[in-house]
Amino acid sequence: MFYFIVIGGYSLLIFLVVAFLYKLRLNKLLISFIVLILILAPFWEQLWGKWLMLDFSRHNRPLQKIIRTVEKPGSVLWIDNVWPGFDEYARAWMVENYLDGVHLHTLGLNDGKGNIYVYRATPDDFSKSAKMRLAMDAAKKEYEEIWKKSGERSTKEVVQAREKYSDLEGPFLAQRKKEAIQRARDPEIYPFREPYISSCWEKFAYRIEWRPIALSGVGKKNIWCDEVTITDVGKNEEIAYNKRCLQYTPTLSVVSRGGLPFENGVTLGDIRAFEFSNDVVFEYSSYVKFSFPVNRSQLSRKRYYRDFSSWGHNTNKEGGTNNAE
Predict the structure, then answer these.
(1) 295 and 248 in contact (C-beta within 8 Å)?
(2) Which DSSP state fits 18?
(3) How far apart are CA 84 and CA 95, in angstroms?
(4) H or E stretch at 306
(5) How high is the mean pLDDT of the chain?
(6) 308: which of 50, 131, 169, 212 fits an S-S bond (Cβ 3.0–4.6 Å)?
(7) Is it the case that residue 29 has pLDDT exceeding 90?
(8) Are the C-beta atoms of 161 and 139 separated by less than 8 Å?
(9) What is the spatial distance between Cα 3 and Cα 11, in angstroms, rounded to a whole number?
């Protein structure tokens, strides 16, 4: 209803302006130019955001690049300087989904308050869920084969196979969560400052950093850009990166819907930046449940103006990503 009122009112305004201009007997070409400006005026933020992102992409191609992936990262340090940091719930979520003692035995997470929380695990810590997973994976494979053979989801055999898999998946996830919670209760906590910070990188095989990209005074009021980089610490080699830009919610959307900072704006790059690491060092974790908590109340223009200099999904591991057009 709101949009109908706005569109109707604005259309009436344009009609009155055109009538007034004709009454002044101005040149028709000039009147057409003024009408064009009036029609485009409500969309200037989207157009301006699109131009800023085209300019950004022109100087930052490709937006995403994966040089190589890692099957068993061993130890990973995850530094989040965007939200920033992992709170207690988020740290438990990371432990539950990634720390399995086999592919990943050490996980470091910053809390945004100057500390690094380090979690460690061995295969024995997840031995019960590991045994349950073997049975669950077998049931899943059987279900997929029956489904593929029948070509339909609703046949009796497919339904029974799916129920068998579901009956095993629930207890597995519950046991996995129980084991993860146990590991999350006893972290090692280190100060994230010198001199520890200089040697901190060397304690982990891989480092993931999510940080804002500084923009000019003009750009930072309209768009937010950040990047995720993944580094092989031992070789001092960047093995992957992902850059993205999000336009702040246009004024009309703020007026009509309020709240969210990046709604109905132009986007550039892989929007779900947090999941990028899954394609590089966490491919083994096929049971990640994306219920990662987001405190949307923190995502305000004012907050990002104060804290930082500034703020599609197409993946090509060889050629990178660039969907500016």
Answers:
(1) no
(2) H
(3) 18
(4) helix 301-307
(5) 78
(6) 212
(7) no
(8) yes
(9) 12
In this structure, are residues 64 and 242 in contact, taking their beta carbons and an 8 Å threshold?
yes
- C-alpha 85: how far from chain center: 14
Give me the torsion for CA of 9, 15, 16, 19, rounded to 10°. Answer: 180
What is the C-alpha end-to-end distance of the chain, expressed in Å? 32
Report which secondary-structure segment, H or E, holds 107. strand 104-110
Compute the average pLDDT of residues 19-36: 82
Q: What SS3 class is residue 225?
A: strand
pLDDT score for 44: 74
Mean pLDDT of 77-104: 89
The dihedral of CA 144, 150, 153, 154: what is its sign? negative
Query: CB neighbours (10 Å) of residue 47?
Result: 11
- Give the CA radius of gyration of the chain: 26
Residue 184's CB is within 10 A of a number of other CB atoms, namely 20
Pairing of strands 267-269, 115-120: unpaired
Task: Look up residue 216 and give its two tokens.
Answer: 């000019």
User: Parallel, antiparallel, or unpaired for β 206-212 and 223-232?
Assistant: antiparallel
The pLDDT tens digits of the residues spanning 273-293 come to: 878 888 899 988 765 544 444
Instruction: List the structure tokens of 48.
Output: 């301006």
Q: Which two tokens stand for residue 19?
A: 């009538």
What is the residue-wise DSSP string for 259-276?
A: S-TTSS--EEE-S-GGGG
Q: What does DSSP assign to residue 314?
A: -
Question: CB neighbours (10 Å) of residue 255?
Answer: 11
Burial grade of 268 (CB within 10 A; 0-12, 13-18, 19 or more) = buried
User: Measured between alpha carbons, how far is 195 from 206 in angstroms, rounded to an integer?
Assistant: 20
Question: 198 pairs with which residues across the strands?
Answer: none
